[in-house]
Write a structure and sequence with these properties.
47% of the residues lie in helices and 8% in strands. It contains 20 helices and 11 strands.
Length: 483
């Protein structure tokens, strides 16, 4: 496993082998490979940009510890997360020697062969950090030292990399109770980059979360209002949305296990809210309240214009042992079978025909692509389809999405690409892979005479750049840029 080999990134990588298709794909890719990156949904920490002298820390801090795509694969092979430096909730000491952690990563780097993470890492190591060899046990220390030396250079500060990556706009994802101090600092700093928050209220609307009561108290503190009723929750959420908008937000983001929606009377919603405050809400209460709050979020988006993103179908924190030891978002999300046609009927009947709403749907259930999601997006004016997400943010996942969705929904009921990452240096790699996949898909349509070359050239620009700018209203909100 320790053979030293060169990182191989040929210009025509990943394209289908048919010579004519590959030729067209490469030409289409070259039209957009250097276009600015529009990053409308992700999880990068805004603090790294608010502080102009922010440092990433060690290579382990940067590339391994925050990236659940990486450590979940290692854990799947029986490697304890403690040995990878992942902090435990109970404060039990974990491995703190970052060189030792990196060695474990390097010894097991072969696990990522053929995976999207492996594709991203190869691009990131070579293009961003100038590493020439594939990581392995034999060169682990050498590559660690090389990356560590790079990270000490001024050009590897986050702001400089943001500019080098040619990012036009980057949206973070921020809890409803986040005071957004880093976004405030960014606006006051004079730096002209466009980094905006995204309103994420899951922690205060999903009453089955273990930390829900704590989150409600925190939301009350940041808003200056004691939230002791359903109506006060609605009032506070409306105010917080306006605050996010004042700092440049154009979108909200919501997650639920299922896309169930329903409408409750105010007194019914308050009864559930009061039971939740007392710790007496049951699973049916949680389903009804979340389904109702999704309806309320759609109403608010109609009124305030924020784009509504909805991620359904992920059984989050499926591994109870990992959740108990390490907390949320530690790589144990598992997809479930999902019903959109029935579950979203109340919301779509009430708001799906309203062109003031943009509702972007994401799924982990690929079986719904052609059966449900493409027909829904191909009919309701308010609905767009988000790109393949989590497990399907991959070459094959994006290819399946294009093949199963496009004939019914059409390209223009989709929203381009978003990187959905916590690993900031991987952003160019992720966009590059998506642009290659779209160029390959369009080239196949060209060589089969489904579309002509002129259409393909327009469509590749839409896929890479224009769809995301339009769907997330970045074209309409230039006044939200920092002064």
């Amino acid at each position: 496993m320790s053979n030293r080999t060169k990182i191989n990134l040929p210009e025509d990588r990943y394209f289908d082998t048919d010579p004519k298709q590959k030729e067209v794909a490469l030409e289409l890719y070259h039209l957009v490979k250097d276009k600015p990156l529009v990053c409308p949904h992700g999880h990068v920490d805004p603090q790294m940009f608010a502080d102009p002298d922010y440092r990433f820390g060690s290579p382990t801090d940067l590339l391994l510890i925050p990236d659940h795509y990486v450590f979940r694969m290692l854990y799947s092979q029986g490697i304890p997360m403690e040995s990878l430096g992942i902090a435990r909730l109970d404060g039990t000491p974990v491995e703190s020697d970052h060189r030792k952690i990196w060695q474990v990563f390097a010894d097991n780097y072969h696990l990522f062969r053929g995976t999207p993470t492996g594709m991203w890492l190869a691009h990131e190591l070579k293009v961003v950090f100038g590493v020439e060899e594939n990581l392995c046990g034999a060169n682990a220390r050498e590559i660690y030292d090389h990356i560590a030396a790079q990270l000490e250079k001024p050009e590897f500060r986050p702001r400089r990399l943001f500019e080098k990556f040619n990012i036009e706009v980057l949206a973070t994802t921020d809890a409803a109770d986040d005071p957004l101090v880093h976004h405030q600092a960014l606006r006051k700093s004079g730096w002209k980059a466009r980094i905006v928050p995204t309103f994420r209220p899951d922690g205060v609307v999903n009453i089955d979360r273990p930390d829900w009561q704590q989150n409600i108290r925190s939301l009350g503190r940041v808003s200056g209002i004691e939230i002791n009723s359903y109506q006060k929750l609605i009032t506070v959420l409306e105010g917080r949305r306006e605050y996010f908008k004042s700092l440049g937000a154009t979108a909200t983001d919501h997650a639920a296990l299922t896309p169930f929606t329903d409408h409750l009377l105010p007194q019914e919603a308050d009864s559930i809210f009061q039971r939740a405050l007392k710790g007496e809400a049951d699973p049916r209460d949680a389903q009804l309240f979340t389904g109702h709050m999704l309806m309320e979020m759609a109403r608010m988006s109609v009124e305030d214009g924020l784009v509504m993103q909805f991620h359904a179908g992920s059984w989050r924190n499926h591994n109870q042992l990992i959740f108990d030891r390490f907390g949320y978002d530690k790589g144990s999300d598992i997809p479930i079978q999902t019903d959109y046609t029935r579950s979203m009927l109340p919301l779509l009947n009430k708001y799906g025909n309203d062109t003031r709403l943009t509702l972007i749907l994401f799924t982990l259930d690929e079986t719904t692509y052609s059966r449900e999601l493409a027909p829904i997006a191909g009919h309701y004016p308010a609905v767009k389809l988000g790109p393949p997400w989590w497990f399907h943010d991959s070459w094959n996942g994006m290819k399946r999405f294009r093949e199963q969705v496009m004939e019914t929904a059409g390209l223009y009921n989709t929203v381009g690409f978003n990187d959905d990452t916590r690993a900031f240096p991987s952003i160019p790699a992720r966009h590059d892979l998506a642009r290659r996949c779209d160029a390959n898909w369009l080239a196949n349509l060209v060589v089969r005479s489904v579309i002509d070359r002129g259409d393909a050239e327009e469509m590749i620009h839409d896929c890479a750049y224009r769809l995301a700018r339009k769907a997330y209203k970045f074209e309409q909100s230039s006044s939200a840029k920092p002064d």
